[in-house]
Amino acid sequence: MAFLTSFVPRAVRTGLLGDGVCHRVVQSKATVGRFHVRMQSASTESEDKFVADALKSDKVVVFATTTCPYCAQVKDLFNSLNLPFKSYNLNTMDDGAYIRQSLLRSTSQRTVPNVFIGGEHVGGCDDTIAALESGNLQKLLSKVGLAI
């Protein structure tokens, strides 16, 4: 399978920074059998800034989707521990797919939930539970002035 990539200097879309924000779009075409597939992804600073700002504004951040049972499990865990956290449901956000790409670039994690404590990446559901069981979650929380 070969990908032909062409760069479009600017494209306009609506999103985090409002209507008409310019960003760079990468388009790829692939031929799979008889079918032509067009893929499009965007790489913008606004999504990276959104993630950075989210991590600065809250001590515990969960990037999730409303349909993911593992996301619900992490949220239920934090609620049962009376742990304050901010959750961003990416599947309900206009720029959720772009934010997810930003998270992938910064963490190399493709799945949700994507958990951060004090700006430090914890990982997904299994990683968060393992951190709780090992005591590492408590250490991360104490660094940001939280206890469970």
Automatic annotation (TrEMBL):
This is Glutaredoxin domain-containing protein. GO terms for molecular function: glutathione disulfide oxidoreductase activity. Residues 60-122 form the Glutaredoxin domain. One of its GO terms (cellular component) is cytoplasm. Pfam families: Glutaredoxin (PF00462). Keywords: Disulfide bond, Redox-active center. Gene3D superfamilies: Glutaredoxin. Signal peptide: none annotated. GO terms for biological process: cellular response to oxidative stress. CDD domains: GRX_GRXh_1_2_like (cd03419).
